C-alpha cells in the first residue's frame, strides 16, 4: 500500500517538470518560428546539449530521491520492526491491484525522469533508456527497504511489475517519441454502508480522504488511456480525445480474504460472505497534454493532471455482467 503514497507524490510534483519542457503542437513542424525553438513532431522542445545541466540533473536526481527515501524511511518504515533481508510472496493479495499500482508508479517515474533529462539535450536513446532505468531503480530501492522490514519483504512480482511499467514508457518513446498510451489513476471514496465494514475500512485504510486516496484499493482504478488521433490522424475527433481501459476490484477487506485475526489468532472480523471481484471498464478520456495553450499556468496544470483519469461515464464488466456508470472517478 505504501507505494501508492509515493506515486501520488511523484505524480503531482515530478510531472511539474513536464510543463516546463512541453511545447504545444504546431501542426507537427520541426521548428517553432514564433519562439525560434526546434520541436519534435509530438510537440516537445529540442534542447541543445548542456554539460552543466547534465551534472545538475544528475545531482538533483540523487539528492532529491535520497531526501525522499530518508523521509519515507522515517515516516513509514521506522514504525515497523526491522529484519534480515527476506522475500515475501504477495502474488494473491488485493486481487493484484497493488501490482497494477507498481506498473503505474514505475511508468510515472520514468515519464517524469524523461522530462528532466530532456532539458539537458543528451542523446535521445540515451535519455529514454536512462529514464526507463530510473523508474525501475526508484521502485527497486523501495522494494529493497521492504525486504528489510519485518512487516513486508522483497516481492519478485512487485519487481516484475516495476519493469513492466518502465518498459511501457520506453517502448512508446522508442517507437513514437511520445506517450500515445498514458497510464493513469483515478479514485473515489467508498462509503460501505454498514457499521462493521466502515470500522474495518477505517482500521485498514484510514479515515481521511487523503489516507483513503493512498490506501483503499476498493476505490482505485488504474487506466490505459489511448489517444485516438495519435493512431488515426484522420479520425473525426478532437486531438485530445482518448479511450481508456480500466482495471479495479471491490469487496476487499483484507489482503487475501475478508477475515481478520488478532495477534493471538482470534477472529475479530469475518465478512467472508462478501464477494471479492475484479472490474473492467471502458470510458472516454481527455489527454490534456494535447490541448493547445500558451499560458504556463495551464500547461503546468494540464501536465500534472495528465497522470489522472478524467471523470466520465463508463461501461463496467464485473461478475459476468455489463452495466453502465453515469460518472466514474
What is the gist of this entry?
The chain is α+β, with helices and mostly antiparallel strands and 329 residues long.
Tell me what you see in this structure.
It is a single chain. The chain is an alpha+beta fold and 329 residues long. It is 43% helix and 19% strand. The protein has helices at 2-13, 16-21, 51-75, 97-118, 124-147, 156-176, 195-205, 209-215, 228-231, 296-305, and strands at 31-32, 37-38, 181-187, 220-227, 241-250, 259-261, 267-270, 277-286, 312-318, 321-328. It has a 6-stranded antiparallel beta sheet. A two-stranded antiparallel sheet has the order 1-2. It has a two-stranded antiparallel ribbon with strand order 6-7. Helix 5 (124-147) runs antiparallel to helix 6 (156-176). Mean pLDDT is 86; it is low at 22-35.
Keywords for this structure?
329 residues; alpha+beta; 2 domains; 6-stranded antiparallel β-sheet; two-stranded antiparallel ribbon; 10 helices; globular
Task: Name the overall outline.
Answer: globular
Radius of gyration: 21 Å
Strand order of the largest sheet: 3-4-5-8-9-10
Query: If helices are DSSP runs of H or I spanning 4 or more residues, what is the number of helices?
Result: 10
Q: Secondary-structure element order, as H and E?
A: HHEEHHHHEHHEHEEEEHEE
Q: Which structural category do the helix and sheet elements fall into?
A: alpha+beta
Oligomer: single chain
How many strand segments? 10
Q: Give the total of domains.
A: 2
Measured by DSSP, the beta-strand proportion falls in 15-25%
Low-confidence stretches: 22-35
Distance between the termini: 20 Å
Q: Roughly what is the average pLDDT, rounded to an integer?
A: 86
Major pleated sheet:
6 strands, antiparallel
Helical residue percent band? 40-55%
